[in-house]
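4.2 Preliminary Data

To establish feasibility before requesting continued support, the project team ran the inverse folding procedure on a target of 524 residues. The structure was first converted into the token representation described in Section 3, and no sequence information of any kind was made available to the design step. The complete token record follows.
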């Protein structure tokens, strides 16, 4: 039969229905699409176009809007026929992926024959997508050279015709899928060699943003380790943001292959002045563990200029070192990462990694609160008394935990109303950083208007044999009409901004606490 008016209203409706069915069935069958495609090619009713052995295929050239490359034989290794991509570095090309494409060629089948298409009819060729084909595949094999053009999708299958004959077919799903792969998609693109489980230090740098350093170290108040920020300021981290960052690092993978080596000209890809970098290093450990950690690898990733030929990507390279090795940077391969991959790691903001409630501490661990409000010092001592019943026995809750009465006493012996003191404490630990103070901020830092030291009954980690107890500290300085400077954990340099309104609310809450008028915290 001869192909004519292919896109009638009836055919359009059939195609639309087929697409709808595919979308609905995709929920159940998506995971099996590729295996189903392979089964289609094994069905008895398929039409063989090429039927030979792998050794009979000499080369395959794929041309598409996405890429153009040639796969050819590359000798025998361990009795297995090898394949290569001509004119490219093949060290990370996946041989199985190449063989998958070759398999489609020596077992090339059609689903249904539609007749002969008039290739001179431009309107007809456009109707089937042959004017702008999905791919053009030229197969050189023992019987000669044949070229097939893959057009638009027809449901889950594809229109296809053979050059020189004009024979017109419906081709199985895998024909459109595999013959549209780029050479980069046939590579095993590298991810990270260093696992986050062997990482104790993470350093992230990006132009225009403060450098971020994180360390997996013990808390000063316990022997449990956690990710803590070292720079731009020292502090605890927000667990949700850190988890997202760790996931992005663990899932990192190069997006495109670019070049087999950087070469001596680091400026070619913008690596002389990197746009961003990531360093993963082994954990900080005690002296007895130093030998173990010394053999753990470190890895660095550097991101350069935007890729000139493809929008939405940046040049990138990586290297891994251990045992004091020096990297051979000119020999490193050049890849590219997409904006999406880049943003997952380098798009994170330092202020979002920081736990913004910088003096958040459980009141059960606090023994004294020392305050300085606009030069006026005061302190609140916190003590507990075990509650006893009429017989002198401890009162316990349903789980058996002893009950206590908590007392809040000022220096002069005045006992504060517990509900007011607890409400003030909530205001106090809610002090929140909102932004980092930049070195180029034009405002001058003014006088100190507030400081707090919360003494705890927890001995500093590593100092259990001494009388040193952990203290939580913060200082607030004047800045401008909207913000104050917030320093914490003993930091003496510029740290963060906090809203001026919050510190003023804290001052007001302090006065209401003293008068017994500060509303109690609601139970819910």
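Position-by-position output of the design step:
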């Amino acid at each position: 039969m001869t192909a004519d008016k292919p896109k009638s209203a009836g055919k359009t409706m059939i195609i639309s229905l087929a697409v709808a069915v595919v979308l609905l069935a995709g929920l159940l069958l998506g995971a099996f699409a590729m295996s189903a495609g392979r089964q289609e090619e094994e069905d008895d009713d398929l039409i063989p176009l090429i039927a030979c052995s792998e050794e009979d295929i000499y080369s395959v050239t794929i041309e598409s809007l996405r890429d153009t490359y040639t796969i050819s034989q590359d000798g025998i290794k361990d009795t297995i026929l090898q394949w290569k991509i001509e004119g490219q570095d093949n060290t990370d090309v996946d041989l199985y992926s190449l063989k998958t494409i070759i398999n489609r060629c020596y077992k090339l089948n059609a689903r249904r024959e539609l007749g002969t298409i008039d290739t001179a009819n431009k309107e007809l060729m456009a109707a089937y997508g042959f004017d702008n084909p999905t791919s053009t595949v030229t197969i050189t094999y023992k019987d000669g050279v044949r070229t097939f053009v893959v057009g638009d999708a027809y449901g889950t299958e594809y229109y296809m015709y053979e050059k020189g004959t004009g024979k017109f077919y419906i081709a199985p799903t895998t024909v459109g899928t595999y013959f549209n792969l780029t050479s980069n998609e046939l590579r095993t693109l590298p991810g990270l060699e260093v696992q986050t489980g062997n990482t104790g230090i993470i350093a992230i740098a990006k132009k225009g943003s403060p450098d971020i350093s994180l360390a997996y170290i013990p808390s000063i108040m316990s022997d449990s380790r956690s990710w803590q920020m070292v720079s731009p300021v020292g502090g605890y981290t927000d667990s949700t943001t850190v988890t997202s960052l760790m996931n992005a690092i663990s899932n990192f993978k190069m997006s495109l292959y670019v070049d087999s080596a950087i070469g001596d000209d680091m400026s070619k890809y913008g690596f002389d002045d990197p746009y961003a970098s990531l360093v993963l290093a082994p954990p900080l450990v005690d002296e007895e563990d130093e030998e173990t950690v010394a053999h753990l690898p470190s890895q660095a990733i550097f991101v350069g200029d935007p890729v000139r030929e493809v929008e939405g990507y940046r040049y990138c390279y990586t290297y891994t070192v251990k045992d004091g090795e020096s990297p051979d940077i000119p020999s490193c391969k050049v890849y590219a990462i997409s904006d999406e991959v880049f943003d997952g790691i380098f798009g994170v903001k330092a202020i979002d990694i920081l736990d913004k409630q910088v003096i958040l501490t459980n009141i059960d661990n606090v023994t004294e609160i020392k305050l300085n409000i606009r030069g006026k010092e005061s302190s609140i001592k916190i003590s507990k008394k075990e509650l006893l019943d009429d017989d002198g026995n401890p009162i316990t809750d349903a789980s058996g935990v002893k009950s206590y009465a908590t007392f809040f006493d000022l220096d002069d012996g005045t006992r504060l109303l517990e509900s007011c003191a607890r409400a003030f404490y909530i205001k106090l630990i809610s002090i929140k950083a909102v932004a980092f103070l930049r070195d180029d901020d034009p405002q001058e830092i003014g006088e100190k208007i507030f400081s707090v030291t919360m003494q705890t009954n927890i001995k500093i980690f590593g100092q259990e044999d001494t009388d040193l107890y952990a203290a939580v500290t913060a200082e607030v300085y004047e800045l401008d009409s909207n913000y104050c400077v917030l320093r914490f954990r003993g930091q003496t340099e510029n740290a963060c901004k906090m809203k001026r309104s919050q510190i003023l609310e804290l001052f007001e809450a302090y006065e209401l606490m003293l008068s017994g008028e500060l509303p109690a915290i609601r139970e819910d």
